[in-house]
Design goal:
By secondary structure, this protein is α/β, with parallel strands linked by helices. The protein folds into three domains: about 220 residues, no CATH class; about 80 residues, no CATH class; about 60 residues, no CATH class. The protein has 13 helices and 17 strands. A six-stranded mixed β-sheet has the order 2-3-1-11-12-13, with helices on both faces. β5 and β6 form a beta hairpin. α11 packs antiparallel against α12. The longest helix has 24 residues. The chain starts with about 25 loop residues before the first strand and ends in an 18-residue tail after the last strand.
Length: about 450
């Protein structure tokens, strides 16, 4: 029998696989795992990936863990992200929620408190005086007898302060709807060392794009927002800081706005410590590709609309904070990051920049050499054109864009010698979105 190799020869050439653009739909939730949770999950590393809530439970985490509570909103939407990454924090946040009552006599102050064990109880107190210190004392007495076990309340004179008996355990406190106008809450614990933890998480796995937190202390949000800005991530954080509603100096929204951070945004919710509205909103947006959606007009599952006054709405808008106003059609308003830039513009620009980089890089990898001549310049132009076409098809940029590369004759001898191609240009306009409409109707009889 003849050997096939005598008349058939196949030469295989192995090449480098094309580079893939990073995902701009991959969220990471940073949460602390207790020593018991680390032992149960075996998660000694810093990053884990989950594709369902059942997967979170199967890992050894319970529904009462900070990680589960922070991840759950992503997988609770009708269209879910395929994967959520968990970044394990090694430094435990000493979660502290401060409850600020308004001085009103004859009012019922009701709080929904979910303990570290997952048990939810209502703490109720009826004021007999308008003196805030007396109301705080009454709330504390009610808290000590009605709240779930494992929580510690203390009298802060102007507020009731609530902590877990052990740092690192998660709980939530929020006013019930009928008390929302006379009670506000805010998380106000110290930064436990978040910057070091985020650096360690990224050092192990840096493929994620959005960053959210299981807890939302003012100091934590400042650190996480600065990290997102410095590392080209997109931070999106829940907050229940009631001072935002009154534009009180030092509130977390004003602090972030002062930094002009275009990579961090806030989502307000009176029950944010329980509902994690930032993750819920991301859960609706991230399943769709860049260019296909934005954060305004969304109505995610599992989020309670706040009954907001006109002044509160004005202050939230002025601070570029996402919110749902229950006094009317309930959907998220704002759509902006702390700097005033729109969430979708930031995400779309990040994707477009990455797409051009990958397209050009793959051209270099696919060709043994790209000569510095008219043919090589055409290759570079073709790469930018292909990327711009994709951006237009996705709705990232409007039609009418232009791509240009310099002519060979216009390139300096220094650039030719250095093998650097400068002055390639893409001129385009972002598609944006219609966020409001004004109609002038003329009616005749």
């Amino acid at each position: 029998m003849a050997n096939i190799s005598e008349f058939v020869t196949v030469n295989l050439v192995t090449g480098t696989a094309p580079l893939q653009a990073p995902s701009y739909s991959l969220p990471l939730v940073a949460a602390y795992l207790t020593p018991a949770e680390v032992a149960a999950t075996g998660m000694n590393n810093r990053v884990a990936s989950f594709t369902s809530l059942q997967g979170v439970l199967s890992s050894g985490l319970t529904a009462n863990s900070a990680a589960y509570r922070a991840i759950a909103p992503f997988f609770s939407q009708s269209l879910c992200v395929p994967t959520v990454m968990l970044g394990r924090l090694a430094n435990p946040p000493d979660l502290t929620i401060k409850v600020y009552p308004t001085g009103v006599a004859g009012r019922v102050f009701s709080l929904n408190v979910v303990g570290t064990n997952g048990i939810a109880k209502t703490v109720t107190f009826t004021s007999t005086t308008a003196v805030v210190a007396d109301i705080v004392a009454g709330l504390l007495a009610a808290f000590n007898t009605q709240a779930p076990a494992g929580l510690v309340g203390t009298n802060g004179t102007t507020h009731l302060q609530v902590k877990a008996s052990t740092a690192g355990l998660h709980f939530s406190v929020a006013p019930l709807a009928l008390s929302a106008s006379v009670v506000s809450c805010q998380q106000d614990h110290a930064d436990p060392g978040l910057a070091a933890d985020l650096a360690a998480i990224a050092d192990e796995n840096n493929s994620w794009y959005t960053l959210s937190l299981a807890t939302a202390g003012k100091a934590e949000l400042a650190v996480a927002s600065a990290y997102a800005l410095a590392n080209k991530k997109l931070g999106f954080f829940s907050t229940q800081d009631g001072d935002i509603l009154a534009a009180t100096a030092g509130n977390v929204a004003l602090t972030l706005a002062a930094t002009a951070n275009d990579r961090a945004g806030l989502v307000f919710g009176g029950a944010a410590s329980a509902e994690q509205p930032a993750q819920a909103l991301l859960g609706q947006v991230l399943p769709l590709q860049p260019g296909a959606t934005w954060t305004k007009f969304k109505r995610p599952a599992g989020v309670t609309a706040d009954m907001l006054s006109g002044t509160s709405v004005t202050n939230l808008k002025a601070s570029n904070v996402h919110f749902i106003n229950g006094n009317g059609v309930s959907f998220y308003e704002s759509g902006k990051l702390a700097s005033g830039e729109y969430f979708d513009n930031r995400r779309n620009l990040d994707w477009f920049k990455s797409d051009m980089e990958v397209e050009l890089a793959n051209a270099f990898l696919a060709n043994p050499i790209i000569h510095y001549d008219d043919v090589g310049l055409t290759v570079m132009e073709s790469c930018l054109t292909a990327s711009a076409k994709r951006a237009e098809s996705r709705g990232v940029i409007r039609p009418g864009w232009r791509v240009s590369v310099p002519t060979l004759a216009s390139i300096s001898a220094a650039d030719l010698a250095a093998r650097v191609l400068n002055d390639c240009k893409v001129v385009c306009s972002l598609s944006g979105a219609i966020g409001s409409v004004v109609v002038n109707a003329t009616v005749t009889f």
